[in-house]
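COMPLEX REQUEST
Ligand: uracil
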Amino acid sequence: MDGVTVIDHPLVQHKLTIMRKKETSTAGFRRLLREISMLLCYEVTRDLELTMETIETPLVEMQAPIVEGKKLVFASILRAGNGLLEGMLELVPSARVSHIGVYRDHETLKPVEYYFKAPEDIAERLIIIVDPMLATGNSSIAAVDKLKERGAHNIRFLCLLAAPEGIKNFQSVHPDVRIYTASIDSHLNELGYIVPGLGDAGDRMYGTK
Ligand code: URA
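STATUS: Structure written out below.
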């Protein structure tokens, strides 16, 4: 699918299957989310530009590669995005973090924004938005709208699962934002849940249901 990268690494697929199982405990789900988020982070940053720096090893001076440009920004769509954030920050500890509070009104399925915080200079940074579920796409669209309003233009969207309806909706508004996901599932149900999915990601990671 154009504009979408499906991360089909065997370890990602294996962990995702265990996360989908209804009998997986909150503790297990959280641990797997942390592990899978590192693997997803590895893939979403695979093509970052490198630049050479002169360093000294204990033996000699050498030219060695480092990631070019300003530090990345991980933008977490609250609350479920924070589950992905933790593992990603372990891999990229110097990343800046933006929090975007958008919840889905369960009746209208429309996003309601209640919080936004981001570094001042997001226009100069690569932003990776994280949210485990790209369902209707409405919250993701709202998050990208907000970041673009603040000048961001280099944005990627990382999730665990995406629904075809959500991808279509998202790409109709933000075709410039590449989507990275571990799976494109079958469809959305009438309540806006991804099928087969894994249930409510926030409830599963925080044990709130
Ligand atoms: N959000 C979730 O947590 N799960 C879904 O299936 C859809 C949206």
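REMARKS: The CA atoms of residues 33 and 83 lie 7 Å apart. The pocket of uracil is lined by residues 80, 133, 135, 192-194, 197, 200-202 (CB under 6 Å).
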